[in-house]
Design a protein that fits this description.
single chain; mainly alpha; Multidrug-efflux Transporter Regulator, Chain: A, Domain 2; 3-stranded antiparallel beta sheet
């Protein structure tokens, strides 16, 4: 058994942080002495090690607690998840380091490519195969041929901006392999339709709460439900990034107009604030 001060010295986690982990149920001490001192055994230290791995990805403490307490997430599965996330982060950092090395050699080649040419070709093929025939014919008519459409697609997807966005999105799934797998095997039509109906119901509930503060329990509960649905439908490892991106998209003109038409002016901005407030507060936890 180790005292809280010994655990702090061993791991670098402050005593205050360890006390807070106990308060929120993230890391309970193995036992307490009659005087109230916290003691930690090897199992507790192993859990702390897992917590520190997840903190490397800036996951909110509440989300880490949910992962570790998920009955489906045994130790082996947690380690596999952490390894995939670390591998994705390592790949992105190695690309950045290579770019810095190029700059030091006087070669100004800021290569932030994420997908290979072969992977982008496969993404186009999947898009072409799954698109409804009428939409496919319209796209081919716009570009003049499938080959010209393909060239336009590859130019667009290979742009540095989109490659950086793809890299970030892939982190939500635990890495590029998991993201590519989802692209190859998206949810079926019935599942997608059920998701759309659930999302519409959530948006309606949020719109009805516009007179409530965005940090009220009722609003936070609905946003939490929204995040849960997004995570399950898109098979995300962590939904915060996607939800914050969704908040940004809601403030674009088309989204504002669509929600205003359905629920009244200001709805999109209100929902965006509610999402940001929920995930920013979770991140501070």
């Amino acid at each position: 058994m180790r005292t809280v001060k010994e655990v702090s010295a061993l791991t670098g986690v402050s005593v205050r942080a360890l006390h807070y982990y106990d308060e929120i149920g993230l890391l309970r001490p193995s036992e307490k002495t009659e005087a109230g001192y916290r003691l930690y055994d090897d199992d507790a230290l192993d859990r702390l090690r897992q917590i520190l791995f997840f903190r490397e990805f800036d996951l909110p403490l509440g989300k880490i607690r949910d992962i570790l307490e998920d009955p489906a997430m045994d130790r082996a599965r947690i380690l596999r998840t952490q390894r995939r996330m670390l591998a994705a982060k390592k790949e992105r950092l190695e690309r950045l380091i290579a770019s810095i090395d190029d700059l030091e050699r006087g070669e100004d080649r800021m290569d932030f490519s994420f997908f290979t040419r072969t992977e982008m070709e496969e993404m186009f093929r999947l898009t072409l195969d799954r698109m409804p025939e009428k939409l496919r014919d319209l796209a081919v008519g716009e570009f003049g041929s499938v080959e010209k459409w393909r060239e336009h697609y590859l130019r667009t997807v290979s742009s540095p901006k989109l490659q950086r966005e793809y890299a970030k999105i892939a982190e939500w799934y635990g890495g590029k392999p998991a993201y590519l797998e989802l692209l190859k095997n998206p949810p079926g039509r019935e599942v997608a339709e059920a998701f759309r109906k659930r999302e519409a119901a959530i948006l309606e509930k949020l719109a009805a709460k516009q007179n409530c503060p965005v940090d009220s329990f009722q609003v936070r509960e609905i946003v939490g439900e929204y995040g849960f649905v997004m995570k399950r439908f898109f098979l995300l490892k962590e939904e915060a990034g996607m939800m914050l991106a969704l908040a940004d998209s809601l403030e674009e003109e088309r989204a504002r107009e669509r929600l205003a038409e359905s629920y009244g002016p200001g709805t999109a901005e209100y929902i965006a604030r509610a999402i940001r407030g929920f995930y920013q507060q979770k991140g501070e936890a």
